[in-house]
Structures are given as C-alpha cells and as structure tokens.
From TrEMBL:
Transmembrane segments: none annotated. Pfam families: Complex1_30kDa. It comes from Bergeyella porcorum. PROSITE patterns: COMPLEX1_30K. This is NADH-quinone oxidoreductase. Keywords: NAD, Quinone, Translocase, Transport. GO terms for molecular function: NADH dehydrogenase (ubiquinone) activity; oxidoreductase activity, acting on NAD(P)H; quinone binding. Residues 31-151 form the NADH:ubiquinone oxidoreductase 30kDa subunit domain. NDH-1 shuttles electrons from NADH, via FMN and iron-sulfur (Fe-S) centers, to quinones in the respiratory chain. It catalyses: a quinone + NADH + 5 H(+)(in) = a quinol + NAD(+) + 4 H(+)(out). Belongs to the complex I 30 kDa subunit family.
Length: 164
C-alpha cells in the first residue's frame, strides 16, 4: 500500500475533507476538516484499506494561529502492510471539541482523556471525559503554551554553560 493509493482513496470518498497533504519523514500526513475527521478515520478502518490500529492521539497548541489554535493528531497503522498515516484536525480554542473515536478504537479512551487533561480538548461522546494523569482540581492544562519556559529573574545560571 502506498501513500498515493491511500490519498486517492480518501479523496475519492471525501473530496472536500482534505485541507493539506505532506509526507514528512515518509509518513503520509493529512489535515482534515474538524467536522469530517471521525468519518475519515471510520472509513480508513472499515474500508479495504484496513488501517485498523490506533497508535496514538495527542494534541497540539499553536497560540499564534487563532483560527487553528488547538489541534488533535491521530496516528493510525495498518499492521498487515505496515502502512502508517497521520491525520490532523484543528479548531479555535473557544470551540475545542472533537468527536470521540472510542466507538471505533477502544484504546482511544485513555488517549482522549490524556489529550483533554494536558490540552483541554474535549471529545464529544466520550464515555468518561475527566482528567487521567493530573489532579482533578487542577484548573489549567499544562501543555498549553501559556507560560514562559524559563524564569527571567534567575541570577544563578550562566547561558554560556548551555551553549547560548
């Protein structure tokens, strides 16, 4: 199975859903419309493409891009042909909700909870959307790029020691 074959199959079934295509490091990577991401994943799993293993779900935060500030990234794998694909979908921060894929892949349960826990992205239809790794009363999502990486007031470090 080749990237071209899979891309053609997706474009044939969902001609308006693919927003961009790239192939970094040889992995087909598609940006899909937010409202179509679950339909595309369902098609990849249940069609003859048999991309039937969900490797990972994670979030991403681009604070400088208000139209596509939060995103969800899905890594899928066909174990028979060793074909991998990466799907991305983006949303504004105010409406950071995506359809849950727990009904397609049982393993998505904890992956979606982790993405919610660290990025604040909610998954509609998830059976148990609550924090999984951080404490329940935590009032922020630690992977959002909202805080400075270093304390600018520190005087006990010398940047020359770190190659800067």
């Amino acid at each position: 199975m080749t990237s071209e074959f899979v891309l053609e199959a997706i474009n044939r079934e969902f001609p308006e859903s693919v927003l961009s295509v790239s192939e970094p490091y040889g992995m087909l990577t598609l940006e899909i419309k937010k409202e179509d991401i679950k339909k595309v994943i369902h098609h990849l799993k249940d069609s003859s493409l048999q991309i039937n293993f969900l490797t990972d779900i994670t979030g991403i935060h681009y604070p400088q891009n208000k139209e596509k500030e939060l995103g969800v990234i899905y890594h899928l794998h066909n174990m028979m042909t060793n074909f991998r694909i990466r799907l991305k979908a983006f949303s504004k921060r105010e409406n950071a909700q995506f359809d849950s894929v727990t009904d397609l892949y049982a393993g998505a349960n904890w992956m979606e909870r982790e993405t919610f826990d660290f990025f604040g992205i909610e998954f509609k239809g998830h059976p148990d959307m609550r924090r999984i790794l951080n404490v329940e009363d935590m009032d922020y999502h630690p992977m959002l790029k909202e805080y400075a990486l270093e304390d600018g007031t520190r005087t006990d470090k010398d940047d020359k020691m770190f190659g800067r």
